């Protein structure tokens, strides 16, 4: 069995390297975008600033959507339902070939960097599964490569085991949560399981997490910013110390759980309706080329909504407010903070919302505005013609209404600095709200709890 464990380690390492690469590219593109916007803004050229802010997002989403529409249709939108279907007996063409791998990767990083309401989690699961399939079989019909090694794994059962491990490694790499990756595959992905496969999948997830953490320890956007192999706690741990909880804290927590279930059900219901209407509309178009062009225009419309909606809420000084809030957080302007929540990269925005000790950083207006638009636009985005995931939108949406509940408690009881009232913190309830909405949409429980604990502590 040594060769099976070796392959699991190689798959985990490869997925970890891929996760590192995707995050570095996304960070680089986001930084490049806002550096260009800042330069034009400092020159006082607001027209070019606006064109740059909107144009970069449109260019990214144009390439992102085109890559899955014209290059690899199997990579849209996230690939996770297809992976689940395959592992449960459904045969899907071109799901694991190298063309799908390249198209999904390009589409994912560009979609996330463009500012679209999506995350890289779903595509990373798909990409991890492709690596699990390719590295275990050591053959490619597309490239015409058939290596004469480890041929005993070229059967349906072993192939599905390695695909399962690769999918778990994908989620482990994104959240740096090896146990969460294992439980996710057990709870959501695979229906056929045994103890041996569980340990091997955990080892694969562990290697993916370690590789991503190790490579990310000194680089941000491909810029060297530290010592290789030195893991800075403040980059990973959002809640530094344990909180002494009061029994009263369970009341808003239960409320958030109920709210997460209701809003999660509403999100799923609306998304199903939107996708049915989307399918009916596109299927009514007879020509394939015109149908694909229409899907491309839809994604362009989605990414265009972000700055346009934010501009309506903050007036003609939108770009000044947004760039100021993003480049020098915290932001004191109500309109600017709302705009920054809508335009900022989702992962960074979640970090803002989870931040402890920022009781009055965001007001009701900015949080409610961002919640309404983010809920609607992320519901619309899910299912569109880009390789994208829903985890970041789910966490972001839940964090927004969780922080609103926390802000209500602060308004009632005031800012508490003593040990008995330290739990009244909007950042804490943002984390609870994020978990509640994530669970309400995905129906995950155990793996979600582990993932959230891994993220926050």
Can you characterise this structure?
It is a single chain. The protein is mostly helical. The protein folds into two domains: 2-232, Clc chloride channel, CATH 1.10.3080; 247-456. It contains 18 helices and four strands. The radius of gyration is 22 Å and the shape is globular.
Annotation keywords:
single chain; 457 residues; mainly alpha; Clc chloride channel; 2 domains; two-stranded antiparallel ribbon; 18 helices
Which helices and strands occur, and which strands form pairs?
Blueprint: H1 2-42, H2 46-71, H3 80-87, H4 98-114, H5 121-137, E1 139-140, E2 145-146, H6 156-175, H7 178-189, H8 195-216, E3 219-220, E4 223-224, H9 233-236, H10 250-283, H11 288-314, H12 318-327, H13 334-343, H14 346-354, H15 364-381, H16 391-413, H17 426-442, H18 446-456
Instruction: Give the overall shape, derived from the CA principal axes.
Output: globular
CATH level-3 fold name of the largest domain = Clc chloride channel
Number of strands: 4
Our Rg estimate from Cα atoms comes to 22 Å
**Main sheet strand line-up:** 1-2
Report how far apart the termini are. Answer: 35 Å
Assembly type of the shown chains?
single chain
Low-confidence stretches at least 5 residues in length (pLDDT < 50)? 237-241, 312-336
* Number of individual domains: 2
Helix content: over 70%
CATH class of the largest domain: Mainly Alpha
CATH architecture term of the largest domain:
Orthogonal Bundle
Transmembrane segments: 5-26, 46-74, 95-117, 162-185, 197-223, 243-270, 318-342, 362-382, 394-415, 427-453
InterPro entries: Cl-channel/antiporter, Cl-channel_core, ClC
Keywords: CBS domain, Membrane, Repeat, Transmembrane, Transmembrane helix
Pfam families: Voltage_CLC (PF00654)
């Amino acid at each position: 069995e040594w060769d099976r464990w070796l392959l699991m380690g190689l798959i985990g390492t490869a997925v970890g390297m891929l996760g590192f690469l995707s995050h570095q590219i996304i960070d680089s593109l986001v930084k490049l975008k806002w550096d260009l916007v800042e330069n034009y803004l400092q020159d006082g050229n607001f027209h070019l600033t606006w064109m740059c802010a909107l144009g970069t997002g449109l260019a990214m989403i144009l390439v992102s959507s085109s890559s899955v529409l014209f290059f690899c249709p199997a990579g849209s939108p996230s690939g996770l339902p297809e992976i689940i279907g395959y592992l449960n007996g459904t045969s899907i063409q071109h799901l694991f070939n190298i063309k799908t791998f390249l198209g999904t990767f390009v589409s994912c990083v560009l979609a996330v960097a463009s500012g679209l309401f999506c995350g890289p989690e779903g595509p990373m699961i798909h990409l991890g599964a492709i690596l699990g399939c390719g590295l275990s079989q050591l053959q490619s019909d597309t490239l015409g490569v058939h290596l004469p090694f480890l041929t005993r794994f070229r059967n349906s059962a072993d192939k599905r085991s390695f695909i399962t491990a690769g999918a778990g490694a994908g989620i482990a790499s994104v959240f740096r949560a090896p146990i969460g990756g294992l439980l996710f595959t057990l709870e959501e992905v695979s229906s056929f399981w045994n103890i041996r496969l569980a340990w091997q999948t955990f080892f694969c997830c562990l290697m993916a997490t370690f590789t991503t953490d190790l490579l990310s320890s000194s680089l941000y956007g491909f810029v060297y910013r530290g010592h290789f192999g030195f893991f800075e706690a403040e980059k990973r741990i959002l809640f530094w110390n344990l909180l002494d909880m009061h029994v009263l804290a369970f009341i808003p927590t239960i409320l958030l759980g109920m709210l997460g279930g209701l809003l999660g059900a509403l999100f799923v219901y609306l998304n199903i309706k939107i996708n049915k209407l989307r399918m009916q509309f596109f299927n009514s178009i007879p020509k394939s080329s015109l149908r694909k062009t229409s899907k491309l225009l839809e994604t362009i419309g989605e990414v265009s909504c972000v700055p346009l909606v934010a501009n309506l809420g903050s007036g003609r000084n939108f770009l000044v407010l947004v760039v100021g809030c993003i480049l020098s957080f915290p932001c004191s302007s109500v309109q600017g903070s709302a705009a920054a929540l809508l335009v900022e990269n989702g992962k960074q925005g979640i970090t803002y919302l989870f931040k402890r000790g920022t009781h009055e950083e965001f007001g009701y207006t900015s949080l409610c505005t961002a919640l309404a638009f983010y809920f609607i636009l992320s519901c619309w985005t899910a299912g569109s013609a880009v390789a994208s995931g829903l985890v970041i939108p789910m966490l972001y949406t839940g964090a927004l209404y969780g922080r609103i509940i926390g802000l209500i408690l602060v308004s009632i009881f005031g800012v508490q600095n003593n040990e008995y009232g330290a739990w009244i913190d909007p950042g804490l309830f943002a984390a609870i709200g994020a978990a509640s909405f994530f669970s309400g949409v995905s129906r995950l429980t155990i793996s979600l709890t582990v993932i959230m604990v891994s993220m926050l502590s």
